[in-house]
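Appendix C: a fully annotated inverse folding record. The material below is reproduced so that readers can follow the format used throughout the book. The structure is listed first as tokens, followed by the designed sequence.
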């Protein structure tokens, strides 16, 4: 059974940084293309970043230049480093794992950016 667990969220002031983690268990991370999504308090979903099995990355327009996605297959973990956080970054961040027609989601980690 594949499980994803996100962590690293919290409350920060505007301009601050957070590093989110997503740990996959039950299967080697190296098989999976991974995506981070942001759900806003207004229930809008936004793609934040993707990293495929080969390590290629892609970012949503709202986070380009402020965020870095990376993976450590040995630790079965994907990271999202977010800098220069803005109040609009507030919400729940989910990671998604995709391989061979199967998609898995974690439970999310909450980020609050407020002064």
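Designed amino acids, in order:
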């Amino acid at each position: 059974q594949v499980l994803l667990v996100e962590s690293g969220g919290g409350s920060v002031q505007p301009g601050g940084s957070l590093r989110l983690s997503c740990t996959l268990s039950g299967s080697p991370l190296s098989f999976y293309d991974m995506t981070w999504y942001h759900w806003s308090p207004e229930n809008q979903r936004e793609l934040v970043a993707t990293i495929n099995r080969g390590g290629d990355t892609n970012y949503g327009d709202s986070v380009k230049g402020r965020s870095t996605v990376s993976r450590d297959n040995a630790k079965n973990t994907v990271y999202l480093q977010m800098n220069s956080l803005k109040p609009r970054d507030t919400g729940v961040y989910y990671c998604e794992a995709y391989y061979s027609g199967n998609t898995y989601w974690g439970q999310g980690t909450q980020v609050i950016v407020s002064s």
